[in-house]
Amino acid sequence: MEHNKTSAAISPTKRVRCIVKLGGAAITCKIKLETIDEENLKEVSSQLRQAFVLDSTSANVLGMDWSKRPGQSEVPSIINDFSDQPVADSESFIVVHGAGSFGHFQSSKSGVHKGGLSRPLVKAGFVATRISVTSLNLEIVRALAREGIPSIGMSPFSCGWSTRQRNMTEADISMVIKAIDTGFVPVMHGDAVLDALQECTILSGDVIIRHLVHFFLRGPPVEPAAVLIREIAVREDGSWSVVKPKLEDTIEFTVAAHDTTGGMVTKITEAAMIAKLVIDVYITKAGTDHSVKALSWNLERWHT
Amino acid sequence: MEHNKTSAAISPTKRVRCIVKLGGAAITCKIKLETIDEENLKEVSSQLRQAFVLDSTSANVLGMDWSKRPGQSEVPSIINDFSDQPVADSESFIVVHGAGSFGHFQSSKSGVHKGGLSRPLVKAGFVATRISVTSLNLEIVRALAREGIPSIGMSPFSCGWSTRQRNMTEADISMVIKAIDTGFVPVMHGDAVLDALQECTILSGDVIIRHLVHFFLRGPPVEPAAVLIREIAVREDGSWSVVKPKLEDTIEFTVAAHDTTGGMVTKITEAAMIAKLVIDVYITKAGTDHSVKALSWNLERWHT
């Protein structure tokens, strides 16, 4: 992986506490086309507020989504409450979300991940995929903003991120750093991007996370292996295999036909790459007690 | 204005025929909060298709917005038509749109244009403004895509554009160039951005256009002055005044209280700066015969 010079030269002044991946299946109804799991998204956003916005209670949330609500012509009255409020600060974190029932259909139907922009179907699919994933991104940014999290949507494509034969080559993170340093929470997502060899492809949220981890997270040099890492062996070349529990048969990972980002195999591969850097990786179901626990555990270790 | 090194080093391989500004008042109901003028937006998008997509008729439009339509659970059936289609190409252009009834309320209420991100109201307003303008951007991208225009939303903030005391300093257009070179139509918009001195401000669509003009348009070296330019005198320092028709009194431009981008004064100032480069500037009402005429005139001159 090559890094853009701009990125390498800039260091964030604020320390990023963690990178939160919101799985597509957790925030959308994965089998129902372009449908957000509103209840789960609200719960996840609330949990993130509790974990990261200091002195936050559900009673003193100052919403930052001032858009018109459906069926109303007026803006939310919450804006008038701001004048009395002290400065509320939040700890630095980054959100990366998957696509769930957004984007996958458009990209798989057109074969955007395989490249070839001169084909009308691929070109149209590229446009359609970006429309779908950016509309999901907007809704997630809004859900977080409603919980008082200063979220900022940032599309990998617009940030200038691109690949070469599906491997990330250009990923200037200077704007991500600036957003964090000024107190915002970047919200990134899997996206259709340009590829130097095959013209275009799909950049998955998991690959984005691995890239961000390199820049933002510093793992402790010697640390007992985390729970999930004890079960997977990662070889020098980045390949991995499950070693615990011991299994008689080989494991088979199924990938849904419409999933153009590789499903669980990609997720575990990327998680393994991060684990190699001695950085904690938790895979939990979003919006549950497990995710709260994972966030708290991270918080405890952060402060010790 | 300083230019980022990356931008200066890259030249587009495709020639950009024109930069189209869609005024906020033309595509939204300016007095009705966050309401799109659907009819006008559809008409404008159709006109842009006719002007730029080669061999385009209303009968053979291949829509590129494959999102679920309201009240439907299925995607549009149009996708199945692509396999039979020859490669349709479109001439290169860029769309920049204003905010209209999107964003202005959020930015003026919080004073984002005046800066000061340490104030909770400004910080929340920054988030709220970006949510509002990016949701408008998404709808415009979708409207253009439905007309078969390969539109790609690109937010100035995400592109890393920023200002210093409200003057543009960093505006890396390498991604805009890449989008054009690969056959897409970048759709940019006025946005809340970071400012090196006052922490944040609003970057108007008109300022964005002037910046893009410097890179993408090459005016003929000697050319009779365009209609609008005959009426305005532009001085060396960039200031301007109306000289034709001759007026007894000074002209007063009114700016709506909620308009944080400067209204017509900014528009004319930016237009004058572009005119200084001997580049045609047409200010017409979008979606009318006048705009068709302006686009055709541009087309004729383009081909001669």
Written description of the protein model:
Two copies of one chain form a homodimer. Helices cover 35% and strands 13% of the residues of chain A. The first copy, chain A, is globular. Chain A has a four-stranded parallel β-sheet with strand order 1-2-6-3, sandwiched between helices. In chain A, strands 4-5 form a two-stranded antiparallel sheet. In chain A, strands 7-8 form a two-stranded antiparallel sheet. In chain A, helix 3 (38-52) crosses helix 5 (120-146) and helix 7 (205-216) runs parallel beside helix 8 (263-275). Chain A is of the alpha/beta class and 304 residues long. Chains A and B meet through helix 4, helix 5, strand 3 and helix 6 of A and helix 4, helix 5, strand 3 and helix 6 of B.
